[in-house]
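hey m, so remember when u said the tokens were messed up on ur end? i reran from scratch. heres the input so u can diff it against urs
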Amino acid sequence: MFAMNTSISILNHLESIFRNVQRAVATGEVGSTEEPARNAKGDSVKWFDLAADEAVSAYLEEHFPYPVVLLSEEGSPREFGTGQPEFTVVLDPVDGSDNFARGMAPVGMAVALIPQSYPISVETVRYALVGNLVTGQMCTAERGSGAFCGGKQIRTGTCNVLTSAMISCEMNHFVMRAPLANVLSRARGVRALGCATQAITLVASGSIDAHLDLRGRLTPENFLAPSLILTEAGGTISESEGEPIPEITDMTQRFSIIASGSPEFHSVLVQQLKGDNACA
């Protein structure tokens, strides 16, 4: 484990990376205005995706104190720094890009640091930051040291009753089946935010009680950083059947997830959603 001063330094660097991204997407400053049609996932790449990615790359090259390998949805793996990489950096430069393009919130940035010798998984993320590009609020976590938003430690909510729960659920690009429709119809409230990084950190802070994305569309950069913040705040994340999210072998892998504020409520949701596919 790194020394405390080292951990503080790394989290400070992650905060600086976020501020640089926030400035880049606010000003529209980007080195190249030529946009590739699609990224490795097949999604369209917009100017602000490139601006954010370039801001992170520049910071890693010029200021980050450790050599790293950067994995981002906007390009192939890239190495920064001198010597053997010490971390793998998994970046989601602009999450909620459709929201951003239409001037809507929420929009997030997420970065996860994994020791280079470890496999990529939700269990191996050591440091994480998820920032809100609209409000500027940052949530951070170091494994074993708790989760913090705006400098204050956060904990998940205690709701474990479906009829009292506020649930976030992504519903675009799929046909809802009966088990999921039943869960949503019984919940106290339902929101569709269009931004996984922000939705999962809202579960971590107790603002909502669970986030469901059962479409089989999420890729690792969407959930690796917020998963550490969630679990350090007391929450639980799994695949849709309740199984642990497996190791990542390819950044284009697609997942369905359930993120909940407590193990008890997580079990309730998994049981409610079992017995039939929740989406087609």
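this time it looks ok to me. The two ends are 43 Å apart (CA to CA). if urs says something different then somethings off w ur setup not the seq
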